[in-house]
Amino acid sequence: MNFTASTSYDGVLERDFTVGDVPGVLWTPVNATEHMPLVLLGHGGGRHKKAPAMTGRARLLVDAGFAAACIDAPGHGDRPRTAHDEREITLMQQAMATGEPVGPIVVRYNAHLAERAVPEWQATLDALQDVIDGPVGYFGLNMGTAIGVPLTAVEPRIAAAAFGLFWHDNLVETARKITVPVEFALQWDDEHIPRESGLALFDAFSSTQKSLHANTGAHKELPRFEADSAVRFFVRHLM
Amino acid sequence: MNFTASTSYDGVLERDFTVGDVPGVLWTPVNATEHMPLVLLGHGGGRHKKAPAMTGRARLLVDAGFAAACIDAPGHGDRPRTAHDEREITLMQQAMATGEPVGPIVVRYNAHLAERAVPEWQATLDALQDVIDGPVGYFGLNMGTAIGVPLTAVEPRIAAAAFGLFWHDNLVETARKITVPVEFALQWDDEHIPRESGLALFDAFSSTQKSLHANTGAHKELPRFEADSAVRFFVRHLM
Fold it and tell me: Per its UniProt record, what InterPro entries does this chain match (chains A, B) (predicted)?
């Protein structure tokens, strides 16, 4: 793990790093010890490791005594796009512009990204555990769920996961392999993801402890208090 | 409002009262002022105004700066049972003993109790507002929902309500009349209430702000943290 930059603000130490050619960021309390729980943050599609949702969740987690880390997904943030990435992104933009359903393209493209991202997350976690060695959780919505479900299914170090806002289609079989506690958010009036699809994904997890939080509102209207709820979920299961 | 007894413990002032022939209990901080939010607590079937779930929720609410009040439902606690009550209770006990579905009896009997309880709650709220005059919420699960949904539908003073753990059958039309914020709990593996029935009741509320919390587990296994969640819900909407 190669630390490339460091800054601190309001009690948060923010360190940029690379693992191989994957850039990431680690947030800890300024006076952190090695022994603390760590939550991996998966960003959404088209976003990056320091998007406001990531820095906001990192802030909440650090305030609650966690470390948090995020890496740029393949083709996102500071990482180059492949020709495949460019083609899929163009198709998504065309679908959104013409009002066609974007779901099938997102589901297919994010499954492809997950195949690339899962081993990157595992190598990142190997490296992070030289710095932080407490219990590990995963928190990611949208594309962060498309990547986080297959990651959590194969990664025994992840002991609790917060997911949400994704279709069930490609993820149901993988979700059935997950037995750790899960908190899952969906939007009751999501204009992209059918309600039944979100409920089917929640239902698929084999976890004996799982909680569904469904709120009124459109896809992008997830209430802010759900981030606080996810932090409390990690406090219950990792501390 | 006739106060009949008073005790205090750990900063909570607990006052028994009667309104007409309905006995109730009011919990406030010991040093309460007149201007504070009030949450009405509806107890479950076969329980009473000082059952552990009621005193526990009152404790959480008082700690968060609320007053809380509960009355015995008709035929419950210190109140006499009618011949009708006795017949329905016998039928419920027989169904439970033989393993027949108890739902149809509970739905029918609780609808009957709600007709008696709604005007009692309204008279109680009239009287309570001489003592406590802040915004009002309602919190009740099981039979507390069977009574609370018709109460909230006709009572404009109730500004937020936490419900859950009940069948949709008799309540859907009434729930459609409710527009205040709602938090709703259901058990994903409820052995009495079909999942689709709970989801249909949640869906029926016309509230633009509503949250569903579904947790794994059987009917009586609602996680304790949902009581804390309901308190935070009332903090968001009444404070």
Answer: AB_hydrolase_fold
- Digit-coded pLDDT (tens) for B153-176: 999 999 999 999 999 999 999 999
Q: Residues of chain A whose pLDDT is less than 50?
A: none
Q: Residues B102, B104, B108, B113: is their CA dihedral positive or negative? A: positive
CB contact under 8 A, B210 and A215: yes
Question: What is the phi/psi pair of residue B174, to 5°?
Answer: -70, -40
Q: Where are the domains of chain A?
A: 2-238
CA A37, CA A39: separation in Å to the nearest integer? Answer: 7
Residue-wise pLDDT for A9-51, tens only, equals 999 999 999 999 999 999 999 987 889 999 999 999 999 999 9
Tokens of B69: 């009040």
* Pair type for strands B2-9 and B12-19: antiparallel
Task: Look at A215 and B214 and tell me if their CB atoms are within 8 Å.
Answer: no
DSSP A179-218: -S-EEEEEETT-SSS-HHHHHHHHHH---SSEEEEEESS-
| A208 at interface of B, judged by CB pairs closer than 8 A | yes
What tokens does A95 get? Answer: 């679908």
Of B208, B213, B232, the CB nearest to A211: B213
Mean pLDDT of B74-78: 97
The total of other beta-carbon atoms located within 10 Å of residue A83's CB is 7
Nearest C-alpha in B relative to A213: B213
| Interface membership of A206 toward B (CB under 8 Å) | no
> Residue A151: exposed, middle, or buried by beta-carbon count in 10 A (0-12, 13-18, 19+)?
buried
- Domain spanning A2-238: CATH 3.40.50.1820: yes
Task: Give the closest-approach CA distance of A187 to chain B in angstroms.
Answer: 9
